Automatic annotation (TrEMBL):
It is a peripheral membrane protein. It comes from Taeniopygia guttata. This is Syntaxin-binding protein 5-like. The keyword RNA-binding does not apply. GO terms for cellular component: plasma membrane; SNARE complex. Residues 1017-1077 form the V-SNARE coiled-coil homology domain. InterPro entries: Lethal2_giant, LLGL2, V_SNARE_CC, WD40/YVTN_repeat-like_dom_sf, WD40_repeat_dom_sf, WD40_rpt. One of its GO terms (biological process) is protein transport. Keywords: Cell membrane, Coiled coil, Cytoplasm, Exocytosis, Membrane, Protein transport, Repeat, Transport, WD repeat. The keyword Lyase does not apply.
Amino acid sequence: MKKFNFRKVLDGLTAASPVGSSSGGSGSGAGGSVHPGGTAGAAGTPREEIQETLTSDYFQICKTVRHGFPYLPTALAFDPVQKILAIGTRTGAIRILGRPGVDCYCQHESGAAVLQLQFLINEGALVSACADDALHLWNLRQKRPAILHSLKFNRERITYCHLPFQSKWLYVGTERGNTHIVNIESFILSGYVIMWNKAIELSTKTHPGPVVHLSDSPRDEGKLLIGYENGTIVFWDLRSKRADLRAYYDEAIHSVAWHHEGKQFMCSHSDGSLTLWNLKSPNRPFQTTIPHGKVQRDGKKPESCKPILKVEYKTCKNSEPFVIFSGGLSYDKPCRRPSLTIMHGKAITVLEMDHPIVDFLTLCETPYPNEFQEPYAVVVLLEKDLIVVDLTQSNFPIFENPYPIDIHESPVTCTEYFADCPPDLIPVLYSVGAKHKKQGYSNKEWPISGGAWNLGAQTYPEIIITGHADGSVKFWDASAITLQMLYKLKTSKVFEKQKVGEGKATAEIVEEDPFAVQMMYWCPESRIFCVAGVSAYVIVYRFSKHEVNTEIASLEVRLQCEVEDIITPEPETNPPFPDASSQPPSLKSLSGSTNTVACEGTMKDSIPCLSVKARPVRMPPGYQADLVIQLVWVDGEPPQQITSLAVNSAYGLVAFGNCNGLAVVDFMQKTVLLSMGTLDLYGSSDPYQRQPRSPRKSRQFAAGLTELSDSPVSLELERCKSPTSDHVNGHCTSPTSQSCSSGKRLSSADVSRANRRGPGRPPFRKAQSAACMEISLPVTTEGTVLTLKGAVLTFACLDCMGTLTHQPYEVWRDPHSADDGDKTRKRKLVMHSPSSSQDMGDHQFAVICSEKQAKVFSLPSQTCLYVHNITETSFLLRADVVTLCNSVCLACFCANGHIMTLSLPSLRPLLDINYLPVTDMRIARTFCFTNEGQALYLSSPTEIQRLTYSQEMCDNLQDMLGDLFTPVETPEAQNRGFLKGLFGGSGQAFDREELFGEATAGKASRSLAQHIPGSGGIEGVRGAAGGVIGDLTRARIALDERGQKLGELDERTASMMASAEAFSKHAHEVMLKYKDKKWYQF
């Protein structure tokens, strides 16, 4: 039996008592958590030695940039002069893309879906129409776009908008069939309205339906083409306020497209037909085709097809016109994929897509609608992808997309973020990743090339790693707030492919996605990479620049507790789990699927969940599997999923654990060094020992024992303190609802963690991993157990000066290098031992943070120096010890949305901001902090949101972001020639200002729409910068805007002077011509 030294215990309590009071009200009673076994002699010294430099002024929360594909896209727009693309989404977001590095995210406050987007071409502005019947004008002349004006319709629903090129009047069609006109500059409705009952013929008895199309004639800007849903087309004369012509078709209209000469237009219909109309004979279409309809033998009309949702009609000077449309496929092929059809002359090309088509746009050489369009590319927006097709080549290849829009290629299950990596890593990863790129792309440059971007002041390399449900791992270059994929690793290649029906035979832990990546551990210096999969396996990878063909070494580890060793606590304190003998034991996997353990035939024992390839495997340059470690079935029960993982390249060890115990493997010698059950690991130091009772022989489970350092509070008390931890993601964590197949007693934290996490990282991995690495062999189970409230999230060590102690590592060397030959290679190790420890004493600090609190212990005395109770009503999801401004702090993310930072080692609160409530398990699973004040999380299934908690980076963010708007001259319109000008269009100039202005048209009804001034312009930068930096930024933007307006004024003045000079010259010539003639000679 262990002897206690009561004097040492009293000394420890005396040293701890002032610490508890120093943490304020939150630290009361924390002194009792210090366990005997350490002296308090060194407790006072570290406080006086550490000079903490971080203050609250160093911290500020700010979103930096969002990467990935816009989630649930709904709308698409392109500026042909600025060459930037805008995508609207169902969640009210807008993503604006230009050249690589120019990527901007905007969000409507209402969150209403974006129906349509319209660029003010080459004006640095964008109009968005939303599902809440509001129009918004966005200012794109600043790095963070902001809304200048909003117009909310009260009585009518917006269905379609059209903004003519170089016009300040926006046409707005509504569900009632009316067309309103909005002044873009003031965002006020004009009194000019085209009512539906005036547009259609008086004899028509039915409502024509909503407005589905608006466009002005390329030949005459004074004529407006209005398309109604029921098939009615009206050609409206804006000057005379009457319909010039009306056309009717018996199928609903989906879209309309003009021929550039303005004499013909094409409509797409709900029966899969295209109709071509001539303005001279509007009684019926002069051409009707169903491109994908089967031609009937008896000469009847081809059978109907699916609706053609959109058509574009683009002309070329030297070839046949392009007719491009989406939809229109035959009904007799229900499994056919969504397609885009390109008709060029007699050639018809069908491009099949992997996802449904949301919208598409044809990119043309000219912004003028009355010139030959000369299309060169088609941008196709799919539900989960963005594709650009090259129209200049006959086989229509696609462009290689430079944006990181394939993050969601397989669902992301976990993330890691590394700032200030070794500088040679990014080129090396890119070089091995570039060899796997696909061929067959267009050889032309990416056509969406607008905006400007530079590196900015931030130059340190950053790498993001994403693990996916299909077992793939992607490495991304995240330097300077950009994102580019470097390298892709497929972890599933080390296993045999499962044949149909074989999955049930092997009885893996999860039925779906058995290769899902659950955790990752990467040592950038040694380039050792380790992956833990959801099917209870660990793969150790080494990096090599050479291709090899070799067998994959594998180990099997038996990790299971003995049920007979369990000592159950009092039933009135912690009710046991239901008797498993009354029902088949089952394991609730992290992905939510269940798999019955009982199987036919013999009981499974010592069988892994997956089969490693036994034959030699070709491994390309990059990360190559060195060792596969698998947990095996024990007595008919599957292995529990791995919950903690750590690797040390200097010692050649990989340590991992789950709810059953801990294993340590030497991955250099390929041997298991330690495999110990949780009960054996604790031994007599188990803090959850209750009064001894007779162990129950039946298979049952009780709440109480948790991983290395959970709190001794009861299940009911814990649930009282963190109600949110019991019902995250809809899972119940009450003890009566969980049936477990292991012989381990689970605490509330254990059960809630097992249910709460998807195939991602459990939050207590680092503490357990760090403890694993501290174990010295041979292992003795005697020692001190340090307890905290809730499951432990992170563990770190500081030296006597308060500097973060980095783990030792082996310098990377290529394992398959031909230079070394057969000679023995000497390992080069880098040890991080503090140089001043001899002078300052050999004490260190251990920082441990759990779901509820953080503690700092002095080592080796194990005296608790500082305690901070972080939260009582919620729980932490992520905590990391990070470096910022050459100092160290503890960064925490709480389930109630708060982001907090604490100083080290004193645990003083430095930042506490309510940033983002956890509404989805995805956020909890992917949120991670890194050094230099950066963090990220998956904001949607397809997007990564990066943020900073550093004030310095917030101040410099404006310089790092790309410019959406760059000064570009609008191309001049082609000279139409004298005859075309005389006979090809209207001789009368069209003045929209005179027609739609308040003087002529009057004011619109105030109840129809409400004008809401926006917060754009100079005020839009207030959130992006503060203090003197913000003032300078605002002054610079104001100066830029003023300079731009002055430049435009100069251009207009020069243009007026030139026309005045030309007029003077012509007048002088006329005077000379008629000077000497008499009146009768005229």
